[in-house]
Amino acid sequence: MAQKPGIFPTFFISGFECSTFLWKDKKRRNLVHETQHHQFVQQDYELLRSLGIAVAREGIPWPLVDTNGKYDFSCIDPMLEAMNQNKILPIWDLCHYGYPDDLDPFLDNFVERFAAYCRAAAEYVTPKLPGPYFFTPINEITFFSFCGGEWGWVAPYKNTKEDRFQLRLNLCKAAIAGVKAIREVTPDARMIHIDPLVQVVAPRDRPDQEAAAHHETYVDTFLAWDILYGKELPELGGSPEILDIVGANNYSFGQMEYREHGPHQALPPDDDRIKPLCDLLRLVWERYRRPMIIGETSGLKEGRTAWLKDVMEESLAAVDAGMDLHGICLFPAVDMPDWHTGEWLNNGICNLILEGDVLRRQPHEPYIAELRRWQKELNRVTVLDPDPFSDPVELADVIAAAKRLNKKPDKNWS
């Protein structure tokens, strides 16, 4: 019996890029196909098993399974089979920037259709897996609102702050309705609502933009979570149980210098305005006091190893400060392309090497060695047990490691 049981069977989590948006060229992207995860799903889950990772973020492609409210979930059957064979527990992303062609995300029928789809998805996957069951109804509501509502990168291709605000509001309504629909099927299903950790600062020569940067950091970043929690617009039905588990994504480009038009400018690694990750996590913890995970994090290229070291040190500083952190998601498990250029980002546990028509998985060994080091520091498994679901993570081990290592927050991104 765990002294302080965690929510998940392993502290380290991973996942697979599964976006299905309509891109700027009006063509549907399917990142599961672009990374050939659908072809290599068995190998991809065997990889996680060999790394001692029993939890993975995986997508159900809403625009591909829902045709005018008629469902065909057969495209995820290979994922379900591989999960069962390798004893991997999924966190199902139900809307990863993509929605069916016949829907308008600003209208009420979007909310109704999403709730019906969430119910159908839960009815499909839960009988096929042993549980427990985890869902992310709408991935990164805040970021989705920016790239589809203000920047025009993806459908619905809007380009004003007002459109962004309205899109975010309707996505929050849909997420709340989706949670309720899922729990009609599986009352004990857990939700993880994921959005980026963000800090925005004004340019040094533009003190007139300080108020806007401050608002984006301390108000705008949190509004979707606030609505889901019921802090804002409680008439929409949000509550602490709806928000449930907070997934905070951490990337270097989440700390930015304000730009009035278009995406903000990422701060360089040596910028003295950077905040430690622990401080950003504290903002989330003090606001909601809900269980937390780092929902996505990764470095790039040869920086992956140093990035993981920094994230772990900051995370243990957060644990030592009393934050209820239940896991860290090394995302993605296999590489993904830059949406804009198509170049491989080299941010996965495995790189993808094109050989003919096949994307060969090539493990990035230094990154894996750093993962192994931290698994041992935290007294975690490095290869999955025959039944990894038999015991949850012993968070007392993580807390003990945090106290023993005594890491302090710093601004170093390595």
Automatic annotation (TrEMBL):
GO terms for molecular function: hydrolase activity, hydrolyzing O-glycosyl compounds. The keyword Hydrolase applies. InterPro entries: GH, Glyco_hydro_1. Gene3D superfamilies: Glycosidases (3.20.20.80). One of its GO terms (biological process) is carbohydrate metabolic process. Pfam families: Glyco_hydro_1. Keywords: Glycosidase, Hydrolase. This is B-glycosidase. It comes from Adhaeribacter arboris.
